Amino acid sequence: MTTTADVLIIGAGPAGLSAALVLGRARRDVVVVDSGRPRNAAATTMYGYLSRDGLPPEDLLAIGREEVARYGVRLVPGEVARVRRDGEDLVAEVPDVGDLRARRVLLATGLHDAPPTLDGVAERWGRDVLHCPYCHGYEVRDRPVAVLGRGPVSVHYAQVVRQWSPHVLLLRHTLDALTDEDLEQLAARDIDVVDGEVSRIVTEGERLVGVELVDGTVVPCDVVFVGAATGTRTHDGLLRELGAAFVDGPVTDLPEIDPSGRTSVAGVWAAGNVTDPTAQVVVAAGQGYQAGVAINTDLIEEDVATAVAARRLAYARPA
Questions:
Q1: Exposed, middle or buried: residue 196 (CB in 10 Å: 0-12, 13-18, 19+)?
Q2: Domain CATH number, residue 107
Q3: Are residues 108 and 176 in the same domain?
Q4: How far apart are CA 290 and CA 14, in angstroms?
Q5: 49 plus 105 within the same structural domain
Q6: Do 7 and 103 reside in the same domain of the chain?
Q7: CB 39, CB 113: distance < 8 Å
Q8: What digits encode the pLDDT tens for the residues 261-306?
């Protein structure tokens, strides 16, 4: 069975639902297909979103689904296996659902975080092993915090975390040698550096109490920030199969897009974490809004061209 629409949106996170809302209100026929695996599924609360600060992420998505449904947007559970071009249209193949045919496609497929493979991280992920200080820094303010050194941005990351607590340690872990400038900057803000590789997260009951180094030393802390590192991967497989252009990003290659999210593939846009791994929920929603407006504008231009061609043909016919 083939379902047709003006716009197909792949991914029902903040970016995808925001675009769906714009396009639904623009009276476009929109289908959203989603796998049901949001990036922030482990988080219990979401912060920094004006009017929704402290809301559970799943509640935001539930509100969004309800809102877009009011405008006739169709929500389809499933995972897109492939997107291909068929004439002027794009067709998404969804196992157990069928083909979804659309004039335009927005990919809001997000990314997969790559937390360190240390004993105890998975159990504490999103609780007191954290990724984003802007998301959770205020909630752990003034507590003893350790930053896990994982890549070249870890020194800067420790300085960012320092904004929320005066008790910050930088765990060298797998970091290369620190420069004299790095050490001076860390010392200037009382960020101590702990040498040695970390082996595991140490907990007591339901509370993180420190990290253990490979030599058995336990470094006390209440919270561990891990930041981003090589291994984080955007869900960009569909874009790559379509032949989209990519550019170097700070952590991984990213699709080349214009300010509206238009990719190098005709008729295809991208928004949210698949284009920007650092985008918070509110930013991803804004990107989805921009993409929705741009897609509707592009469709209007096509509709006008089609109408003009039809009018000229009608006038060219003999009376």
A1: middle
A2: 3.50.50.60
A3: no
A4: 12
A5: yes
A6: yes
A7: yes
A8: 999 999 999 999 999 988 999 999 999 999 999 999 999 999 999 9
